[in-house]
Design brief:
Elements lengths: L8 E11 L38 E9 L6 H7 L7 E2 L1 H17 L4 E9 L3 E10 L10 E9 L6 H7 L7 E2 L1 H17 L2 E10 L6 E12 L2
Parallel strand pairs: 2-5, 6-9
Antiparallel strand pairs: 1-4, 2-3, 4-5, 6-7, 8-9
Length: about 220
C-alpha cells in the first residue's frame, strides 16, 4: 500500500463578508455570511489528496483569529460553538463565523470578515481575519439610558450588579461609559473569584436618543 503524506492545503471553503459600521452606536447591522460554496482545490495539489465533502466532519487542529481590536479574542471564542479537538463540518465552522458576526452586531461594530480553511481528509485549520470598520470606539454621541438589564448572572445577584455600575436609567451613556461599567462588573466578579465574559447589547427601540442596555454575562466559576 502506497503511503501518501498530505500536507494542509488551501481549503474547500474560503469566504469573505462585510458588515457596515453602525450609523449610531445603539443601532445594529444585519449582514450574515453566505451559504457554504466549495471552491476547486488549489493548483499543484497531489491528485490523490481528496478534500472532504462539506458535510463530512473533520477534527479542528487550530483556530486563529486576527485583526480584532475592539472585541477580545476570549470574548470571540466564548461564542464559537466548538474548539480545538472538536469534530465539525464546514457548515458548522461557517456557523461559528456567523456567531462572531452576531457578537459584533451586539456591540455595534462594523467589519469585514474573512474565513479560510486549510484541511486535508481528516483535519482542518480555521483562520478568521477581521477588518473592523467602525463601532462604539469611534462614536461619542451621548444617549439617554432608558433601561438597564443583566442576564446569565447565576452567582451574583442582579441587585449587586446594578449597584456596581455607575450609570442608571435616566443617565447619559456613551461607549466610554459602557466600558467603565464593564470594568466595574469585571471588578465585582474578580472580588468574588469568578471568571466572566461580558457582552453589552444596546438597542434604540424608539428610534430616538433613548437606548436600552443589557449586559450578557457568561460566568466561569472556579472550583
Amino acid at each position: 500500500m502506497r503511503r501518501l503524506t498530505a500536507h494542509f492545503i488551501p481549503a474547500a471553503l474560503s469566504l469573505a463578508c462585510a458588515m457596515p459600521p453602525a450609523a449610531a452606536w445603539a443601532q445594529q447591522a444585519t449582514s450574515l455570511p453566505p451559504n457554504d460554496a466549495p471552491s476547486p482545490a488549489a493548483p499543484g495539489v497531489h491528485p490523490d489528496v481528496r478534500l472532504p465533502a462539506p458535510a463530512t466532519p473533520v477534527r479542528v487542529e487550530e483556530i486563529k483569529v486576527s485583526g480584532n481590536k475592539q472585541v477580545s479574542t476570549p470574548a470571540i471564542m466564548a461564542v464559537v460553538p466548538f474548539h480545538v479537538g472538536s469534530m465539525v463540518t464546514q457548515a458548522q465552522i461557517t456557523q461559528g463565523l456567523q456567531d462572531i458576526m452576531k457578537l459584533y452586531q451586539q456591540q455595534n461594530i462594523g467589519g469585514k470578515f474573512h474565513q479560510n480553511l486549510r484541511l486535508d481528509g481528516k483535519r482542518v485549520q480555521v483562520e478568521w481575519a477581521i477588518e473592523e470598520t467602525g463601532g462604539p470606539a469611534h462614536l461619542n454621541k451621548p444617549l439617554v439610558l432608558e433601561s438597564l438589564g443583566f442576564d446569565g448572572n447565576l452567582h451574583i445577584a442582579t441587585s449587586a450588579l446594578k449597584e456596581a455600575v455607575h450609570r442608571q436609567p435616566g443617565d447619559q451613556v456613551t461607549p466610554a461609559t459602557v466600558l467603565e461599567d464593564e470594568k466595574a462588573i469585571q471588578a465585582l466578579y474578580v472580588k468574588k473569584n469568578i471568571g466572566v465574559t461580558i457582552v453589552p447589547e444596546s438597542r434604540a427601540p424608539h428610534k430616538d436618543e433613548r437606548v436600552t442596555l443589557v449586559y450578557h454575562l457568561t460566568e466561569k466559576a472556579t472550583d
